[in-house]
Amino acid sequence: MRIITKNMLLLYMLSLIAIIGACKRNIDGFVEDPSTSRAFIPANLKVRTVQDSAIVSWNLGALASGKKYTYKVEFATDTLFKNIEYTQTTDTLAVKLVDPVLTVNKTYFARVRVEPFQSAAASRWVNTSSFRISGQQFLKIIRDFEITETSVKLHWQVNAATTGINKIALINGSVTTIIDITAAEAQAGEKNLNGLIPDTRYTVQLIADKKSKGLASFSTLKTPVYTKTLSPSDNLESAITSAADGEVIGLNPGLYTISSFLSIAGKGITLRSITNNPANTKIRFRELSLVGDSAGVNLIGLDIDGNYGGASNSGAFLHLKGAGANGNAAAFKSIRVENCWIHNYTRALMLGNYGPSVSGSTPNAHVLKNFNIINSKIYDINPTGIDSYYVLSLERLQVINLNISKSTFYNLGCGLINLSWTLTGVELPIVTIDYCTFNNIGSQNKYLLVEAANRITFNLRNSILANSPLQGQTINNVAFKAGASSVLNFSNSNFFKLNTASGGTKLSLTGLAQSSNYEIDLGWSGSTTDFSLVSLPPNSPLHKASTASNTVGDPRWAY
Fold first, then answer.
1. 43-50 and 53-59: which strand pairing?
2. Residue 199: domain span
3. Which of 172, 328, 420, 482 has the smallest C-beta neighbourhood within 10 Å, fewest atoms?
4. Per the domain annotation, does 554 fall within a domain?
């Protein structure tokens, strides 16, 4: 009898262990019975955002078919759901929330559970990953030439969807200032914001009552502090030669001429027009060489004309060379071209091909970490296409970051970028082209975009490319050459009339990972120099094609 009692007790304990083992502790710390809870936990939870709305959806649990459950959905700003901003119950398999219930550009998390059903307790929560809504976008892209040290001019679409716009939220870090929009400004679709802080990042939000109608960010310009200021009667060449490292030379409006082969050796300087306006400050500039370690230059608000003597054009504007001998090792300082017009050179914009003459013999002898072209126009560089140099011939230069943004390029020979020599090293080129317009480019059977020997990362987005090659010329039948394992992206852009010869076969974009692109012919020819998109229909997809739901191409042409 005692043996039987012990066996029964042992059997009872084993059964209890089995029952407990079949249960598990859920995310909230409660022990749940899978025979009731697991059967109806929401499955395949996902969230999809579209401009001003977020849709959270899910499927029935594995064994929940035929049953009608009630679901509880919570939206919070933290993963622990300590700050719950909105709660909703529903008997459907999805909920949709729209601005202003959710705040535009704010990070949210959502979770869903099944409410108690019959004798079963509530299920455990199922969570989404983070998400945010971008909101409706009726703000037009902000143009750099309408940003100063203390002001910005905003533009927006005037249509039925923007009726009721009455204020702008100006956000600087944690400080938000609400600015009223007058009826006249609302009708005109534009407003000047003044009294801003120089060198500051802002976000602006266009608002109609409580609903967001547009969101954009910009940075005010830094207030320049000039080491010296010059007038056209002064000797600019002498001022550059005698300048110390870090000097900022301001140029008053007028015409300046540098007809010699000028060098900046072992130092970095800035040349900037006082007005920051290339339309009234021009330099007829034959050639500028950056020589040796720490040589660099910033060019801001200038018209740089290669027709230095009034009768003939120079070959190339910028040259990167070693000190003592052209091929000697050099770690250059950065190059920045901002709000400039550069034109009338017969060979190239820049030559970075003075390094060692044998590919790979002295790896990375010439290094440039940052090269930026911003809000500029580059045109008439080898416009006949008869020279064999790329616009940026950087084949013996290890350039780490090459960024081209909000700029226009037209009438250019050969191709855009040459990185064709084999260079070794950890830091390989990252090339980013963003919000640019290209027209009438290519010759000498070269690659239209990039010729690279090394592995590179290349991102071309939010841009317009049209009309290749130059009249009477040919280009390679593919747009791109790059080393193995390169990352090559082409997205959110428009292209048309890209051929391998005038009237020839269509250029192949093989090798580029493409997404969200259009092929809309805008009617431009090779001789077009006005790329305005004002005549585009209001409903043209190109007005919303960019990654920020704005107009593609150089913003100066957007409206």
1. antiparallel
2. 144-219
3. 172
4. no
